[in-house]
Model the fold of this input.
Amino acid sequence: MAQLSHDYPTSVAAISVNVDFDEPAGEPSDELQSQVIQRLQEKQVDVENVICTNPLDDALKHWDVFGLPALVVYGPDGQVHTKFEGAVHYDEEVIPLVKSLVGEADS
Done:
């Protein structure tokens, strides 16, 4: 997704949402924030990252997702186009889908 957002900067935005913080109240600790940043750097993920502060069950319900990992692709109209849950094959599934949506957005 990061590569697609670099290839199509005016059409694609990639955001990662971390759901490791699952407390009823408060903010993510500095330690958790450091761990998240370190994992993203290790995997060379260069996208905007948000640490979700809602309980995990609430977040999953909000995105209508049953399990993790999950990827939600929004169309040019801002509406959910496709959801992927579990193992995602980026080269075969996600990249062709996003490229087709970018084509729709540019036409």
The two ends are 21 Å apart (CA to CA). Helices lie at 2-7, 30-42, 56-62, 90-106. The longest strand covers residues 80-85.
